[in-house]
Request: fold
Amino acid sequence: MNTETEIKDCVIIGSGPAGFTAAIYTARADLKPELYTGLEPGGQLTTTTEVENFPGYPDGVTGPLMMIQLQKQAERFDTKVHYEMITEAEFNTSGGIHKLKVGNKEILARTVIISTGASAKWLGLEDEKKYNGGGVSACATCDGYFYKGKDVVVVGGGDTACEEAVHLSKLCKKVSLLVRKDHFRASSIMENRVKNTPNIEILYNTELIGILGENNLVQSANIKNNITGEVSNIECEGIFIAIGHSPNTSLFKGQIDLDDQGYIITKPDSTETNIPGVFAAGDVQDHKYRQAITAAGSGCMAAMDAERYLGVPPETYN
Ligand code: NDP
Reply:
């Protein structure tokens, strides 16, 4: 084991908007943050195309460019970015020094900001990859506007699918909602909202089995009724997969309090976790808003929480 003897003030895990915003703020507070990008530097935004809802970009910006700029801004204030993945975490339940591992290298830190994000779940169809960015999306808030006045399909029967379908119904001509069972999983309030929206058609017992298109642009959804076996096509230009998200927390299981879906639990109005000195920001602790701007906001909160925590005289947290 190769242990770095220097104890870092702040280690940030994850390189999405939450992580880089936490880096900008902790760097400017002179905490000399060290950020570990993980396997997908830039996070979920690097898999989207145009971002039009992040304030300050009147003409929009591509997700990858926005992440490059956030990283540049963090590095301008001496954030050290490591293109490595933290493979193990050993948190000190009474605060003090936390241990992280990258392979057989051990890193010691007084504060850790976890911003490892969440990943949208996909059906696993080859066509999802083929048409990603050409009509297939996992975020209606991000991409719905591109389908203004058009027909779209939403897959899923939970609260996310209902929320996305209602959001899209305000922009699109028609929304076909594919629910694989004969009932919703969503809360009844969301289910009723969907049922009371005239331009949403609910297709129960229906699954997406393929996507048809030309030049990598979606033209129709190939669907199957799983009771009758009947296969048909729905003409559409957008397909939104809304079957849930998985927070990237497997690394922290047993180390930190997670809710029953695996999201890190933070204290109300704070990014503090149950471990003193360990903070969580962005989608890894938020299954409700999940926006780049809200993730960035909570990254800022985590940085300020970490700074305040370190302001506590050392003997009280060592
Ligand atoms: P859920 O796990 O609640 O629902 C997932 C839905 O997708 C289910 O209908 C499920 O079907 C369906 N599904 C899963 N896999 C497949 C598949 N392979 N093919 C077809 N359908 C599939 O996820 P959500 O993201 O909807 O919600 C997650 C949590 O976040 C929930 O607790 C929810 O209440 C909460 N939430 C709250 C919101 C709010 O308060 N405004 C907004 C959004 C989410 P099946 O039922 O058959 O398993």
